[in-house]
Amino acid sequence: MPATPPIPVVEAQRRIVERIEPLDAERVPITRAWGRVLAAAVSSELDLPPWDNSAMDGYAVRTGEVRSGSSLPVVLDLPAGARSGQSLPAGSVARIMTGAPLPIGADAVIPVEASTGPTGPGVFADPGEEVRFDVAPQSGANIRCRGEDVGRDTVVLERGVECGGPQIAMAASTGHASVDVFRRPEVAIVSTGDELVEVEAAGTEDRIVNGNAYGLAAKIEQAGCVARMLPIVPDDRSVTNSAIADALTSDAVVTIGGVSVGGRDYVRDALVASGVEIVFWRVALRPGGPFAFGTAGKRSVFALPGNPVSALVTFDLFVLPALRKMSGHTRCFPRRQRARLAEPVSTRSDKAYYLRCRLELDAASKEWRASITGPQGSGVLSSLVGADGMVIVPQGVDDLPAGAWVEFLPINDRVTWQEAVA
Length: 422
Known about the structure:
single chain; Molybdopterin biosynthesis moea protein, domain 2; Molybdopterin biosynthesis moeA protein, domain 3; 17% helix; 27% strand
């Protein structure tokens, strides 16, 4: 493949995402819908709430019969789960609990705290006893009306919504035991290199553990997809061709290593031999410049560099947004935020730099401060382990001084948590 100038990061992301389509839909039980994206809108099969009910523990009353200081007998006891359709006799009140159906004739609920029972203020009276009220309520007070939240046949969840706790609660509450979601992408991982061994062979002389594959498999599963780890591929042209052909039975393929210009880098040739159209190769990025993206029909292929940080960073920048779109997400990229550099950084203007950093909130200024976590070489995994995210130094920018404003790209959610309060 002839050498072409590396393209900017944003252009690479654009070319990838515009070629990705969501996968087909499948129906799953609501208990398995967490983290999945709805492939069809969900409409309510019920009114929610299904009947007029009390929003408080107290007494259901007719407002025309209650004055401040007046007393009335308690004739009904309505716990949550009581039968609906019961009538409130004139000149009486019903003891009622939160969520219980409002009796026919009642038009307000007085909280028990605003009443005095036989044993004292704020204490319930039993049926057959009288209760005195300290307030005169307005009609409709402390009542949740039928369909107040959701009416029958109302769309409650739109297509493309990710199912979290509130969404699953809504679907279940409106009568749905199952929902249509986009299928989880299966992602094949192809690791290349004579130097690699599996973790069980750690410590083998002249060999290194294929840690990249394990890390990327974890990221794939964390993204809600299915990781398919294939055996390590030696630096052999025919074996690489066979491995790529096997991997292309998955929805997406991630290769690790063998994509640069080394004499035994066979991945790009193997992709072409398997019918993959290479959309681009090389990005103006550090770490991770020798990255390639291609398609084979509806399948997408991401050829990642072999250095561990390069592989993980290019996965976050290019693969993860594509997998999110395959999974039905409409928001494919994490939100960035601004921070000040805690120290100067040295870069070159011919490419964008993504520098591993830790984020801390400055107590005095209330500004985020980004501190570089350590050496930034593409093989230094330890400085990525300790990072909250990456500071972005855009292409075209040279060295930056301490205090400069930069964009911060999160790679985990540690910064959204705080230490335990003593």
